[in-house]
Amino acid sequence: MPEVTATKKQVWTMGSYSLLTLSIMIGFMYLNQFATEVLQVPAAALATALLIGKTIDFVVSIFAGAIIEKVKLGSKGKNQEWLAKGRWVLAIVIMLEVFPTAGPVWLRLLVMTVAYAILNSLMNIIQTAYYGINAAVAGPNPANRQAFNINMSRQATVVTLITSFIPMLVTTLSFGKWNYFVVAVAFMLPMPFALGAISRLADGKDLPVGAAGAAHQVTAVDMFKALIENKYLLALFATHTVMYIGQFILQGLAAYYWIYVVGNFSMMTVANLIGAVASFIAAMVMPGVGQKLGKKKATTMGYFLLPVIYLLMGWVGRFDYKYLIAVNAIGFFAMYTYTPFLMLFYMDAAEWHFNKTGKDTRGIAVGLASPPMKIGMALGGTIGLTLLANTGFDIPGVAGSPEWIPKFMAITYWVPACFYLVMAIMFVSLYKLSDAEAARCAQENFARLQAEQAAAPTEE
């Protein structure tokens, strides 16, 4: 592995992208609770509305890379313009998503769903643009790319620490139904400044729309070929779709554990705080382990540990929440063996395809990292709510009963564990691209583009 050549300012600024995660966390983790408890939306209506919003989100996620390649927002780089301008739209919809709208149920649900759809649709483009800037600022040096992502993961542990207080804040602040909104606004404020700083890093490095050589321009057909013809990208797409289905089943139901199994929602703050401390320690230690093993071996190890962790949580959590907290804390060490490297696999697959075909679909390929999450959100959320309904959750007196708790723990922890096991097997079986081969492709691609740009005629 070569030495990191990026400056400390670049490493820390690129890592501040984690503040975007902070800004969306209220809606991302607690939208179900906000809708049912504050807006008083029935669970069935909520599931239908979110499925509509997620469908819109998914369609946009497929075309995120192509949108960046084709839509010109200004005179600067195609990626940096989306961060510079999109951050303000994000700020507005983050607030609207948890706005305690008055009026009939349909109006309350409509405002939340529209904000949800816009927020998540734009996030697809923002994330794709960020990794375009990531590649432009890092250059072909894989050490720079890893440094950016590892630092972002470490900064994200501070975000995790802050968000661990969300359950306490939304239940104990004195603003009543405005609690979610107040916390969302406070968490959102650093985000526009972080995205603005990241955008400025790409000055002179990020090419405007249409600036690349004609030989590398991509069409709508190329967008689909980027997925179908790129065997490694297709492997990642399928593998992570399975992963996110399991993840969003768990995330959609986990809060109900504290409400109905433990009987004290505020205890979730304690659990999140302990998890945040564990994640901070894991983020300091495990990425270094991953670099020594190589990101592919480290990711494989982490993937196979996850189903074990969640099987244990589903078993011990029914007896005492302290056991669940302890096992969950251990799980962060499994997660941080692969978390900093997830997007690097997409970038590697994109470099391999460019090197092989001569078509620069790298932006589109990175954009295709979002649809698996969107599919997972739609299917995982729907599957989770459906399984929850089948436990008798909506029948008065059933939720929290001794007969109900084992069913709930099984669907919340054991079902996701099965998805994680399938994911691990798929990754080992289908993703065969080595770290060394990916680095070779990136370096050759960079040299090719540099030579073409040097040979291109200049405007008089």
Structure description:
- Helix 2 packs antiparallel against helix 8, helix 3 runs parallel beside helix 5 and helix 11 packs parallel to helix 17.
- The model has no long low-confidence stretch (mean pLDDT 85).
- Helices cover 78% and strands 0% of the residues.
- It is mainly α and 460 residues long.
- It contains 19 helices and no strands.
CATH H-level superfamily title of the largest domain:
MFS general substrate transporter like domains
What is Rg?
22 Å
Task: Tell me the count of domains.
Answer: 2
Question: What number is the mean pLDDT?
Answer: 85
Task: Please report the distance between the alpha carbons of the first and last residues.
Answer: 42 Å
Give the name of the CATH architecture of the largest domain.
Answer: Up-down Bundle
Uncertain residue ranges: none
